[in-house]
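Reviewer 2 asked us to include a model.

Predict the structure of this chain.
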Amino acid sequence: MKERYHQLKELFQAALERTPAERTAFLVAACQADQTLRAEVNELLAANEQTSYIDAAALLQEALDDATLPLSSTADSMVGQQLGPYRILREIGHGGMGSVYLAERDDKQFKKQVAVKLLRVGSSMQAQHSELIVRRFRQERQILASLEHPNIARLLDGGATPAGLPYLVLEYVEGQPLDEYCDGQQLSLRERLQLFRTVCSAVHYAHQNLVVHRDLKPSNILITQAGTPKLLDFGIAKILNPESFDQTIDQTLPSVRLMTPAYASPEQVRGEAITTASDVYALGVVLYELLTGHRPYQLAVHSLHETARVICETEPPKPSAIVTRAEVITGSDGRERATITPAEVGRARQEAPERLCRQLAGDLDNIVLMALRKEPQRRYASVEQFSEDIQRHFDGLPVRASRDTFAYRSAKFMRRNRAGVAAAALVTLSLIAGIITTAWQARVARAERVKAEQRFNDVRKLAHTVVFELHDAIETLPGSTPARALLVQRSIEYLDSLAREAASDVALQRELATAYERIGDLQGNPYRANLGNGQGALQSYRQALALREAVLQKNPRDAAAQLDLADSLLKLCGAVEYAEGADAALKLGQRALGLCNGALQTQPASERGRQLLASSHETVGNALRANKNFDGALANYGKSLSGFEALFQTATAPADKARYQRNLAINLRKYGDVEWMRGQQQAGLALALRALEQFTALAQAEPNNAQAQFALSAQHTSLGNYYWEAKDLPQAEAHYRQGLQLDELCVRNDPNNVQMRRSLIVNSQNVGYTLAQQGHVAQAQPYCDKALTELAALLKTNATAPGLLNMAKEIYGYDGEVNVLCAERRGVTRAESQRYWQAALKSYQRSLDLLQQLKEKGLVRQVDAQQEASLQSEIAKCKSQLER
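Predicted model (structure tokens):
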């Protein structure tokens, strides 16, 4: 084997020194009758040209058998030897870097069996490779010393042999590999998934300690007799932040690629930068095998280039599809070794193949395939997120990996709430029946008109029950937005029908206007849980506004009608600012302000009038701040603050006090923001800290109130912005992280809330950007990738909203800056630098494109024009770097 390898290597290197035209004649003469040798050299030459997969030198090195790494002393010679207080009993395993022995403590202090891992280094190895393996062995020792987790094999001791080679003393794990244990115990799919989640917790712990395992596979995950998983073998792990360890970790030499191909991610095969996403991929392969009994790919035994191509290009079949197929497994000699049949797979999981297929179809298919995506940024952002999706599948909740559609979420909600949905369906059917009856009775003879009117009133009462009582009863349920939509959207048809009959009925017009406002809130109110249907919300709010206008026209001096119309204008204001910009919102807010002042002239003590007046000042202040009219914004925020302060002081009901306290906190934050923008940093920070106290108190008082948690997140984001502008990056990062944690909780409970998803995107980017500015670029990238992934998903359903386009423009601009920081950091290779410059160019160009869209809509201010020149300059810089 060794002689063959050296012959192959010499011919390959000699062929590389010749031109392609000269190589054929050279190889014919050099290989003579050995056609197999000639074919192997040609394969390496072809692989060398396909640099997008893997370099040929690395392929050749990976093709080496363990025989090229001979033991410094044979396994038999170590048995009975003494290493420190431990006596070697027998060899229990070996690999490319070392051998593992069972040993016991032999110093008469106490008895304990341990595993001793001893380095393997042979004289035939190149010196640089020997040094690399020694460094990696010492790195493994340092990594294990830093990890304390119940599902990671513990480091107990360490030392060096008399020859100076290091060894490790590890917790001895007597168990079976993960796949063998699951099949031997005939665990069900649910039991396998629960066991897999425990493995995920250990990997996530390692990631939190900045360690990527890089060799996750069933043989490195042993299950004890008690059913406890133990993660082993950090021999080729990667430290994401070497500065956190006492030693300097050298990069892997280009010609040595340490991995197990069957579980290696595409970026590992290509030799690209390794992140936690690589472990997500390997866990995806492990889960695929646990669930189906098959591996996602059939890898060629004799063709390394074909193996690389399959991993990098071929999409694996769905788990639900593969379990119904038979697969022939061949050995290294090309002969059939075993056949995996659907019956065997089902028997090991205690399910019939057809039922197993149904259980895997849908969410489990999507979860596994999301982990196996070729592009790292499209996989789960973390192992924790991967594990959480499995738990969401257990709980019957929507999972990240499945397409986020209304029908999908509604189906999930219905499965979890069968009784409630059945009752709602019964009410809806009754409603439809009532509408049909009313329509029919409207056409009967004059003698039946009284009876028809009674039916009409019955339908009206039923409508009120559905839109208000039933809707309110389920509004607080986590994830109830789709079901609320199902109820309310079914009401739109009969609301339109009732509206046509309401021209002479003021009470009905008011009731219908309130119903349309409820529908608008659900469809797209940016400050409440909504479905992201901004255009639908605008239409519903405008229908409500038309009804309010009609009521007021009949009695222009009616204070209650004036306040109703002001309230409707303020609701429309939020949707208009999000969809059409600040100028349109300002006009609506100013009109609401005038109506409130008019109503209070006739009813100065009206609590509702005072509350709407304060809210109107806040809304006008928002629009003025967006247009950089800071003095006008401060004046309005000040009046809003005074109004809510007075309301808070006089309120007696706990719910009213909490509502006014929240309004106070919001205005404190906005007032502080404007003070900061106009250069009064100390005043702005003091107001922001006061607001934080209020928001924290509200969130602690109502831990299950999503709006209270989200409001607290927004305040942490605001404070993070303050500290970032003040150059206090650690403080900025801390507040951004707290905001992100709250956002993730809110979005997990209500994934359809667009406002919360926007906040999650902003804070993900904020954390990544501040980390990159502090030099922690490796830690920054997952946060930036998460922001871009979530942003792309949100843009699909809100592609034209100016508020979202402006946010996306900023996010892509900051992502460009992060990639520039990555490209310019010390120690980055040229290939890595080029990838970062390419990524920066893509993000800057995307930001510029979004700016152009805003310009076409007439929504570009002077500051945006200045930003356009800056973006063009950054794009030119990236292109210049890429052309070098």
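The first helix runs from residue 2 to 16. The chain has 36 helices and 13 strands. We have added this to the supplementary material.
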